[in-house]
Amino acid sequence: MRTLPKRTPDGPPPPPAVQRLRIRYAKRGRLRFTSHRDIQRAFERALRRAAVPMAYSAGFSPHPKISWAGAAPTGTASEAEYVEIAVTRGVDPAALRAALDSALPPDLDILEIVEAATSSLADHLEASLWQIELPGVEPAEAERAVDAFLAAETVAVERLMKTGMRTFDTRSAVVSLNVLDSPAEAAHQSRSSACAILRVVVRHATPAVRPDDVLTGLGSVSGLVPPVAPRVTRLAQGPLVHGDGLHGDGLTTQVTPGASANAESAAGSGAWPVADPMALDRNASANSGPSSINTPVSGV
């Protein structure tokens, strides 16, 4: 009688995860041109250097339990990137933030770490707030393009994907789109005579509508073609906020804590049209008080 090979490796199973931690980080400067896979590798190296007690999957090829959510496209900067990790020993989020920040390369900055207290982080990321700077484009020209885009019922664009060329509607994914015209809102931007600045809230959908798709749509309805490459930054992502300033889960509009001075001044009134996806986790941690399992990361 033939003996079937074992389906599980020899030895004890890996230690279980006892804590999940959600991390918000920024991708700035030249690192906006870094691919998401390279960002993942940098994080994995930083976790090893910081001696974080990572939980691993079972099986013949164990992997650290790291969950990525809503990564920004290559070529864009971001103040709101998210990742979740699982650890086998409770760690202090503040100590982990300091350890990871020192282990990561410049312009890849840890902004906040909280202990997860809610369901999957990806479930809370409904939309993104983007800022698109268009050097060489007059605000009035951008206004005309925005008006034409918002007046259209559908704005179809094409993009080459893994399965080939695909046509999809960008208008249905755009929740709001406007041109900044207040000097206070754009005070940190270039002082050049022509630099329109767009703010767009894009709903997360399949296929994903990216900022460059919105620009392609603007060009198709109005002929707007920026003379130089635009500068794109994601300012926030999270649950959409209703007209009363509240999300259905009771989350309020967010101000980005720990963001750069540029992002802070870009906030204008300080309220985002998307809610803070880690607010419920932060509130749960505050209500539960200090945890007895929270100990500093090894080596910190």
Note down, in words, how this protein is organized.
The chain has 300 residues and is an alpha+beta fold. It folds into two domains: 19-116, 2-Layer Sandwich (Alpha-Beta Plaits); 124-279. Helix content is 22%, strand content 25%. It contains six helices and ten strands. It has helices spanning 36-49, 93-103, 139-151, 211-222, 261-266, 279-288, and strands at residues 19-27, 66-69, 77-87, 108-115, 127-135, 156-161, 164-169, 174-179, 195-203, 231-238. Strands 1, 2, 3, 4, 5, 8, 9 and 10 form an eight-stranded mixed β-sheet that branches. Strands 6-7 form a two-stranded antiparallel sheet. Strand 2 (66-69) and strand 3 (77-87) form a beta hairpin. The radius of gyration is 22 Å and the shape is elongated.
Give the topology, please.
Blueprint: E1 19-27, H1 36-49, E2 66-69, E3 77-87, H2 93-103, E4 108-115, E5 127-135, H3 139-151, E6 156-161, E7 164-169, E8 174-179, E9 195-203, H4 211-222, E10 231-238, H5 261-266, H6 279-288
Parallel strand pairs: 3-10
Antiparallel strand pairs: 1-3, 1-4, 2-3, 5-9, 5-10, 6-7, 8-9
Helix pairs in contact: 1-2, 3-4
Q: Could you give the order of the helices and strands?
A: EHEEHEEHEEEEHEHH
User: How would the global form be characterised?
Assistant: elongated
Work out the number of β strands.
Answer: 10
- Biggest sheet character: 8 strands, mixed
Distance between the termini: 56 Å
Task: Indicate the radius of gyration in whole angstroms.
Answer: 22 Å
Overall pLDDT metric: 83
Helix content: 10-25%
The tally of helices reads 6
- Secondary structural class: alpha+beta
Our count of domains comes out at 2
Low-confidence segments, ≥5 residues, pLDDT <50?
Answer: 183-188, 244-270, 291-296
Q: What proportion of the residues form beta strands (DSSP E)? A: 25-35%
